Amino acid sequence: MDAPSSLRNSLGEGCLTLEWADGASLSLSHVRLRGACPCAQCKAARLRGAIALVNEGVRLERIALQGYGVQLVFSDGHERGIYPWGYLRELGGVASAR
Q1: What are the phi and psi torsion angles at 74 (to 5°)?
Q2: Most buried residue, 24, 56, 72, 80, by most Cβ within 10 Å?
Q3: Quick one: which H or E segment has residue 42?
Q4: Residue 97: its pLDDT value, please?
């Protein structure tokens, strides 16, 4: 999946906005992103039925491009998750372009 053409982090609004060349656009809250972390530790907790409560004040502090997605670093210190572009589109309910 191609990388978005635009990636904006709004600390004030607490959201990450992505736009793709095919016209698809989505905005995901920092809280939603933290709660949907795809790292092995978070995935395992969700598979066990654990519900992670995410502090409403959590913010996305740093974004590191990884080619196939982005590594997101949050204000609560969590930095293990790498979010593939397709996964982000799924989280935002945007169909992948074919």
Answers
A1: -105, 160
A2: 72
A3: helix 40-47
A4: 56
Residue 53: CB atoms within 10 A of its CB come to: 7
Long-range residue pairs from 17-25, CB within 8 A, at least 24 positions apart, any chain:
18/88, 18/92, 20/89, 20/97, 22/97, 24/89, 24/94, 24/95, 24/97, 25/94
Q: pTM to 2 decimals?
A: 0.90
* CA separation for the pair 63, 58 (Å, rounded): 14
Are 70 and 64 in contact, with CB atoms under 8 Å apart? yes
Q: Which amino acid is at 12?
A: G
Contact by Cβ (8 Å): 76, 34: yes
